[in-house]
Design a protein that fits this description.
With 42 residues, the chain is mainly α. The chain has one helix at 11-41. The termini are far apart. The chain crosses the membrane at residues 12-37. Keywords: Membrane, Transmembrane, Transmembrane helix.
């Protein structure tokens, strides 16, 4: 089953969305972790 050239039409859009989510969520996750870790450790 060779699926080359038969990729789903929505894949590029999902890829773009996921990369944008990664760009926007990474600083948020860093801030969240830097705020949450001291509370967990203390």
């Amino acid at each position: 089953m060779d699926k080359k050239g038969s990729a789903p039409q929505g894949f590029p859009l999902l890829f773009i969305i996921s990369s944008y989510m990664e760009i926007f969520l990474t600083p948020f996750l860093i801030n969240f972790l830097s705020a949450a870790v001291p509370r967990v450790l203390l």
